[in-house]
Write a structure and sequence with these properties.
Blueprint lengths: L5 E6 L5 H9 L4 E7 L3 H10 L4 E3 L2 H6 L5 E4 L6 H10 L3 E5 L6 H13 L4 E4 L6 H11 L6 E11 L8 H17 L6 E7 L9 E7 L5 E7 L1 E13 L3 E5 L7 E12 L8 E10 L8 H15 L4 H5 L3
């Protein structure tokens, strides 16, 4: 590191790369040294936006430069494992956009290599750094909703179709990372999933998943690239209250609903079975006005500088 600043190189400047570059450049303790992309038009775009940043087609050039402390990968997911392992072998800290890899074996290999080399490996689950998810986690930790019994998540839109990656790899990592961060349920005991390929043969564009966990928690996740409207919602049902999160709303994204069903009297037979409905207040917590990706990049830079665990690592041991 030069003067305490983390020297960074970005690989892949297509869809998400410009956002990563902007946030690295705006961080006081980071410096974007390189952008690497195989498309000359993308490198021309880099030179327009960031004239002081070196551009290259050569990944080896980046890995050979000792000024590069960290590599950020925003390339198509099938390339993540090979690029990531090469960065770790070159003693570079690593930030990888989700999904980390497209197989469990590759993901474990990346994690193991980073651990053995004492390098930071962070996966870009930007939602974990959003003010809304942070507020929901705070409400849960303070016992506001009671015991969580069910989580439902929908991530639907007319998405970016891909030929080598289905909607599960594209969208579901967001939902599963959020559930893991908020609830920490461990590994599911039962998973049922069904998907359909409507546009590209063999590439599922609509998938529904249902998960059951030890203790009775159930989770359902719906994802689709074929939905006419953009839907980004999450519902958490607890024994005390419910939380509804709608990320498409410009303000008031979270509603905490004091509404639930209760068994009025223990029943022996159907005739003695009674339910009561509780209707209480609904309130909308105030959220901080911060960019999640800026928070995520700040966390990555801090972890590189200090060796502290990343947001995802912290959530996995909550």
């Amino acid at each position: 590191m030069t003067n305490g600043r983390v020297g960074c190189a970005l690989v892949g400047f297509g869809y998400w790369g410009p956002n990563l570059a902007r946030n690295v450049q705006s961080h006081a303790d980071a410096e974007l040294l390189y952008v690497c992309d195989l498309d000359p038009a993308e490198l021309d775009h880099v030179r327009e936006l960031h004239p002081g940043v070196a551009t290259t087609h050569s990944y080896d050039e980046i890995l050979a430069d000792p000024a590069v402390d960290a590599v950020l990968i925003a390339t198509p997911p099938p390339s993540h494992a090979a690029l990531g392992l090469a960065a770790i072998a070159a003693d570079k800290h690593l930030f990888v956009e989700k999904p980390l890899a497209t197989s469990l074996s590759d993901a474990l290999e990346l994690a193991g290599a980073a651990y053995r080399s004492a390098l930071t490996l962070m996966v870009g689950h930007t939602f974990l750094c959003s003010p809304a998810i942070s507020k929901i986690r705070q409400l849960i930790d303070h016992g506001e909703v009671g015991e969580i019994v069910h989580v439902s998540s929908s991530r639907l839109s007319l998405g970016l179709f891909q030929q080598d990656l289905n909607v599960v790899w594209d969208l579901m990592p967001c939902d599963f990372s959020i559930v893991q961060n908020l609830v920490d349920p461990g590994h599911p005991e039962r998973v049922v999933a069904a998907g359909s390929s409507h546009m590209v043969p063999g590439v599922e564009d609509t998938v529904n998943a249902y998960l059951e966990y030890d203790g009775g928690l159930t989770v359902e996740v719906r994802v689709s690239w074929t939905y006419p409207l953009k839907v980004r919602d999450l519902t958490i049902i607890g024994t005390r209250k419910m939380i509804v999160f709608d990320d498409t709303q410009p303000i008031d994204k979270i509603r905490v609903v004091d509404r639930r069903l209760e068994v009025a009297h223990p029943s022996i037979s159907l005739g003695e079975f009674h339910m009561s409905y509780r209707y209480g207040d609904t309130f909308m917590p105030l959220l901080e006005n911060t960019e999640p990706l800026a928070t995520e990049i700040a966390d990555f830079v801090h972890c590189v500088q200090t060796g502290a665990p990343t947001v995802a690592e912290i959530s996995s041991v909550r």
